[in-house]
Automatic annotation (TrEMBL), chain A:
Any one biological process term the GO annotation gives: cell division
HAMAP family assigned: MinE (MF_00262)
Pfam families recorded: MinE (PF03776)
Keywords: Cell cycle, Cell division
Protein name (database record): Cell division topological specificity factor
Record lineage: Bacteria, Pseudomonadati, Pseudomonadota, Alphaproteobacteria, Hyphomicrobiales
InterPro entries, per database record: MinE (IPR005527), MinE_sf (IPR036707)
Family of this protein: Belongs to the MinE family.
Function, as annotated: Prevents the cell division inhibition by proteins MinC and MinD at internal division sites while permitting inhibition at polar sites. This ensures cell division at the proper site by restricting the formation of a division septum at the midpoint of the long axis of the cell.
Gene name per UniProt: minE
Superkingdom of source: Bacteria
Length: 87, 272
């Protein structure tokens, strides 16, 4: 803060623009990703359901986003005894 | 060919209802048959802004549920012969709006109107989704302020994913309406500029509505600003925006109120 800042109005709009640009870049990607996770979960569930009886909440799909790679974690819980569907 | 237009924003209080009334009246002034439809069930206000609050008998939910005919619920504007209002219900639960029912009412409206302007509720829930569902074109109302821009970005994403048009794989036409703009503050670096918002949201600009007393005055007396104060800066901006919706090419200026005089001339600069 110098004496000159006192005479100049605060220019906060450029800060607003930069913050928005960074935030929205991130939010657009994660909105797209959550759609992807939902689609993957549904299709994985469909494939498994063709062969085994499985409650729909037993398939969990999570995406972990890191700088170099992202990982997809798929957890499928099969209740015992495993009930195979007739082919 | 009738056009269904949704006026939406995500964030509340940015001017959806004001803009619905102003654009609806402007389109009707241009000779179109226009129906403005309030989708804000439980918090209806379009009737009040249009000055028709004492003439509401039936509402959108009555029509959706088959309790009233569309013609019984439509309220004809007292100033403009070709402008009609379909109010929302104030008392009923918003779950009473069924997707099929809304689809049927929109089809019926298309038969008798050139423009159907849907005033969306705030938020990204069911009511907002139903309001945008059948739209051919969307107007995204945004204030030059961070939370409004962020919410508009979210709504743009939903327009591209959750509308019938998007689901058919067609391009959803979207326009930005920047409201409550203060050119002088933007010039001083205290408010996001038109170009900043356009760059961030990257949808075409429909109009810039300057901050003005005329907007509040118009809602005080229950009249769309385009009728109450047609010569005012916001009214001229809305009238230009309506012409652009109809496909006219109108130069983009930020109108200034005459009362502002010299300052208005200094800062009522061209944009975009």
């Amino acid at each position: 803060m110098t004496i000159f800042d006192f005479f100049r109005p605060t220019r906060s709009a450029p800060v607003a623009r930069d913050r928005l640009q960074i935030l929205l870049q991130h939010e657009r990607v994660s909105a797209g990703a959550s759609d992807l996770v939902a689609i993957l979960r549904e299709e994985i569930l469909a494939v498994i359901s063709r062969h085994v009886d499985i409650p729909s909440d037993k398939v969990q799909v999570k995406m972990q986003r890191d700088e170099a790679v992202s990982t997809l974690e798929v957890e499928i819980e099969l209740p015992n005894p495993i009930r195979r569907r007739a082919a | 060919m009738s056009q269904v237009l949704v006026v939406t924003s995500g964030k509340g209080g940015v001017g959806k209802t004001t803009s619905t009334a102003a654009l609806g009246a402007a389109l009707a002034l241009g000779g179109n048959r226009v129906a403005v439809v309030d989708f804000d069930v439980g918090l209806r206000n379009l009737d009040l802004v249009m000055g028709a609050e004492r003439r509401v008998v039936y509402d959108l939910i009555n029509v959706v549920q088959g309790e009233a005919k569309l013609q019984q619920a439509l309220i004809r504007d007292k100033r403009l012969e070709t402008l009609y209002l379909l109010p929302a219900s104030q008392t009923r639960d918003k779950d009473a709006l069924t997707s099929e029912g809304v689809a049927r009412v929109m089809e019926e409206l298309r038969d008798s109107f050139d423009w159907i302007v849907c005033d969306s509720p705030a938020g990204i829930e069911r009511g907002a989704l139903l309001a945008m569902r059948h739209a051919d074109v969307a107007v995204v109302v945004t204030n030059p302020e961070v939370s409004s821009v962020r919410d508009s970005d979210r709504i743009i994403g939903m327009l591209d994913a959750k509308t019938e048009k998007a689901e058919r794989g067609e391009y959803m036409e979207k326009h930005l309406l920047l409201t409550r703009y203060d050119a002088a503050r933007a010039e001083r670096g205290q408010m996001l500029k038109v170009d900043d918002v356009l760059e961030i949201l990257s949808i075409p600009l429909l109009g810039i509505i300057p901050e003005s007393d005329a907007v509040l005055n118009a809602s005080n007396v229950g009249s769309p600003v385009t009728l109450a104060a047609a010569e005012s800066a916001p009214a001229r901006a809305y009238l230009d925006a309506a012409r652009r919706l109809e496909g006219d090419v109108v130069p983009m200026i930020i109108p200034a109120d005459k009362r502002v005089g010299l300052m208005g001339k200094l800062f009522g600069r061209r944009a975009a």
